[in-house]
Design brief:
- By secondary structure, the protein is an alpha/beta fold.
- Helices cover about 40% and strands about 20% of the residues.
- The strands form two sheets. A five-stranded parallel β-sheet has the order 3-2-4-1-5, sandwiched between helices. A five-stranded mixed β-sheet has the order 6-7-10-8-9, with helices on both faces.
- Helix 7 runs antiparallel to helix 8 and helix 9 crosses helix 10.
- It catalyses: cytidine(1402) in 16S rRNA + S-adenosyl-L-methionine = 2'-O-methylcytidine(1402) in 16S rRNA + S-adenosyl-L-homocysteine + H(+).
- GO terms for molecular function: rRNA (cytosine-2'-O-)-methyltransferase activity.
- It is an enzyme of class 2 (transferase).
Length: about 280
């Protein structure tokens, strides 16, 4: 290890998704200077360091799903001892469907600082290139592996109006897309992003039904990020005039001014405020 700093800390490193040229200057700097580098796959870290023409300066340890429970206390102890520990996953940001959350939480729980050298994210990269609305979205990560669990989760998400982002393994993508088409509708727009930033990058922008056929008839490979349009926004059914008057009166009884009550009701039912005003005063 290098010389200890006065206060140890954890640094989360954003790693390239596939193209080493996307590595930031800070990523390079931290890989060289950190006392300990915890890597999801030490072989991938070695390859990345070689591609970046640098030597990792500190001790390299593995940190993945199978050993993070055991390794976390060791890394926290190093941080408390004054060492700088860097965490890097195979690609993208730690903690986002990758190891990291457990170590971040444990580091914060002992009062030690956590910082980040941000970098690429498959979530936002796929979202940006999908051609689907990006102003509001939710990330669902990997769906349950069992068919029943997957379908149950999708039924709970069917009415979600925000754009949805999923990760999926290539050997399950056909079944997942079939369930998505059955639950969300075969015509729901989507974008399947495969091998982002790599040599064989591919983005298929098609309805879910067409993507399901493509996946089940073919042999998809590589890392897949799936972006699905949110459910269509349906206008609230317009109530009759008596119901609108009652809704305004109810809000007035609760303490709202008549002006504000009319505005609230007009907003709720996507009506013009002037029309609600006329109904209330007729």
């Amino acid at each position: 290890m290098g010389e200890m700093s006065e206060v140890g800390r954890l640094i989360l490193l954003g790693a390239p998704l596939g193209n080493p040229a996307d590595a930031s200057a800070r990523l390079r700097e931290v890989l060289i200077s950190a006392d300990v580098v915890a890597a999801e796959d030490t072989r991938r870290l070695t390859r990345l360091a070689r591609d970046l023409d640098l030597t990792v300066g500190g001790r390299i340890v593995s940190y993945f799903e199978g050993n993070e429970e055991r390794r976390t206390p060791e890394l926290v102890e190093a941080i408390l001892g004054g060492y700088v520990v860097a965490l890097v996953t195979d690609g993208g940001m730690p903690s986002v469907s990758d190891p990291g959350y457990r170590l971040v939480r444990a580091t914060l729980d002992v009062g030690a600082p956590v910082t980040v050298a941000p970098g690429p994210s498959a979530v936002t990269t796929a979202l940006a290139v999908s051609g689907l609305p990006c102003d509001r979205f939710c990330f669902e990560g990997f769906l349950p592996r069992t068919p029943g669990g997957r379908r149950s989760r999708l039924r709970a998400l069917a009415a979600e109006e925000r754009t949805l982002v999923f990760f999926e393994a290539p050997h399950r993508i056909g079944a997942t897309l079939t369930d998505l088409a059955d639950t969300f509708g075969a015509d729901r727009p989507a974008a399947l992003c495969r091998e982002l930033t790599k040599t064989y990058e591919e983005v298929l922008r098609r309805p879910l039904g067409e993507l399901a056929r493509w996946a089940t008839e073919g042999d998809p490979r590589g890392e897949i990020t799936l972006v699905v349009a949110g459910a269509p926004v349906t206008a609230a059914e317009r109530p009759d005039d008596d119901t609108l008057r009652a809704a305004v009166a109810e809000r007035e009884a609760a303490g709202r001014s008549r002006r504000d009550a009319i505005t609230d009701v007009a907003t709720e039912y996507a009506l013009r405020r002037r029309d609600v005003y006329t109904i209330v005063h007729s």
